[in-house]
C-alpha cells in the first residue's frame, strides 16, 4: 500500500507480540529488536491508532522504551506513563475513520477532510490493463471485480457462492474478473468457478488499479472495500459478524452491505464455529445488488 501514499516517508514492518494468538510465536527478542529499530530512527512522536477493542498501551510502552518523547493514543483503561497524551475514547460504535481522526484532532492535528485518497502510479494502471487484456477485456469495457480473500476464515464468503455470483453476473452480460494475493491462488480459482482466469500475480498497486477501473467490486470486509471507497467505485460488501457494521461501512461511494444478523455478532473471531451463518447470503442477492450498482454507471446491463 505504501506506493499509493505519496506523503509517506517510510514503512517499518514487524510481527509484534501483542497481536499474536500464540504466546510462543514472537520471542521476546523480537520486541527488543523493534525497540532498537525505533530508537535508531529517533522519531519525534508516535501516534498509536487502534480499534475500540484494541489497546494502545503495548505499542505506547514499546515507544517509550525506544525514547520517543511524544506518544499519543486513546483508551478507556489506565496505562500509566505509556502515553504522554491520553485522548478520551470516543463511543465504541464510532466509525474507524472518525475514531482515528479523533485522536489526531485531540493531539492538535486537524484533519484535511475525511475521505480516503490513494494515488495510482502509471505503472500500476499499465499492469492492470495488461491483466485485463489477457482476459479479453478491452479499455473501457465494464467488468465486476470479485475479491474473495480476507485475513481470516470467519470473514470469507464461501468461494462456491462467489463462483455462483460470477456465473450470474456473466449471464447478465457483465464481464467478471476474480483477483487476490499470490497466497490466495487456490481460493481465487475456486471463486472463479472456471469462468475466468484468476488474477493473483499482481501487486497491491496493480490490484488497486483493477478496483479503480471496475464497474463494481464484490468483496468481504477486507482491504478491497477500502480500495473501492478510496476510488469511488460501487461496492457490494459481504460483511461477516466479526465486527460492528457501523465502524467500517463505506461512506463515500455507493454501497450495498449484505449480512445476516446473528446473536454471536460481533464475535471478533478468526474462525467461525457456526458454519458462517452471518454470511449465509444467497448469491442471487449478491449478483442482484452488483448489477444494480453497476447498472447505474453502465447502461445496458440487465
Automatic annotation (TrEMBL):
<dbReference type="GO" id="GO:0008713">
    <property type="term" value="F:ADP-heptose-lipopolysaccharide heptosyltransferase activity"/>
</dbReference>
<protein>
    <recommendedName>
        <fullName>Glycosyl transferase</fullName>
    </recommendedName>
</protein>
<keyword id="KW-0328">Glycosyltransferase</keyword>
<keyword id="KW-0808">Transferase</keyword>
<dbReference type="GO" id="GO:0009244">
    <property type="term" value="P:lipopolysaccharide core region biosynthetic process"/>
</dbReference>
<dbReference type="Pfam" id="PF01075">
    <property type="entry name" value="Glyco_transf_9"/>
</dbReference>
<dbReference type="InterPro" id="IPR051199">
    <property type="entry name" value="LPS_LOS_Heptosyltrfase"/>
</dbReference>
<dbReference type="InterPro" id="IPR002201">
    <property type="entry name" value="Glyco_trans_9"/>
</dbReference>
<dbReference type="GO" id="GO:0005829">
    <property type="term" value="C:cytosol"/>
</dbReference>
Amino acid at each position: 500500500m505504501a506506493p499509493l501514499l505519496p506523503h509517506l516517508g517510510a514503512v517499518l514492518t514487524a510481527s509484534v507480540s501483542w497481536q499474536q494468538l500464540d504466546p510462543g510465536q514472537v520471542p521476546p527478542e523480537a520486541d527488543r529488536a523493534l525497540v532498537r529499530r525505533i530508537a535508531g530512527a529517533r522519531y519525534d512522536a508516535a501516534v498509536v491508532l487502534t480499534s475500540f477493542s484494541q489497546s494502545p498501551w503495548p505499542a505506547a510502552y514499546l515507544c517509550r522504551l525506544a525514547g520517543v518523547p511524544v506518544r499519543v493514543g486513546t483508551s478507556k483503561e489506565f496505562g500509566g506513563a505509556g502515553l504522554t497524551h491520553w485522548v478520551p475514547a470516543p463511543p465504541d460504535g464510532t466509525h474507524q475513520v472518525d475514531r482515528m481522526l479523533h485522536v489526531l484532532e485531540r493531539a492538535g492535528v486537524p484533519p484535511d477532510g475525511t475521505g480516503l485518497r490513494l494515488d495510482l502510479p502509471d505503472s500500476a494502471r499499465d499492469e492492470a490493463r495488461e491483466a485485463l487484456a489477457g482476459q479479453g477485456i478491452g479499455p473501457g469495457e465494464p467488468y465486476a471485480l470479485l475479491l474473495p480473500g480476507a485475513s481470516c476464515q470467519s470473514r470469507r464468503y464461501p468461494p462456491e457462492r462467489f463462483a455462483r455470483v460470477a456465473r450470474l453476473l456473466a449471464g447478465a452480460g457483465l464481464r467478471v474478473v476474480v483477483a487476490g494475493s499470490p497466497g490466495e491462488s487456490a481460493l481465487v480459482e475456486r471463486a472463479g468457478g472456471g469462468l475466468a482466469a484468476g488474477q493473483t500475480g499482481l501487486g497491491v498497486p496493480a490490484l488497486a488499479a483493477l478496483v479503480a477501473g471496475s464497474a463494481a467490486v464484490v468483496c468481504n470486509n477486507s482491504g478491497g472495500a477500502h480500495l473501492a471507497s478510496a476510488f469511488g467505485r460501487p461496492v457490494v460488501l459481504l460483511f461477516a459478524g466479526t465486527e460492528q457494521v457501523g465502524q467500517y461501512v463505506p461512506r463515500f461511494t455507493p454501497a450495498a452491505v449484505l449480512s445476516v444478523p446473528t446473536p454471536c455478532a460481533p464475535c471478533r473471531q478468526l474462525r467461525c464455529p457456526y458454519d458462517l451463518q452471518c454470511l449465509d447470503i444467497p448469491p442471487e442477492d449478491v449478483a442482484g445488488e452488483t448489477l444494480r450498482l453497476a447498472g447505474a454507471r453502465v447502461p445496458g446491463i440487465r
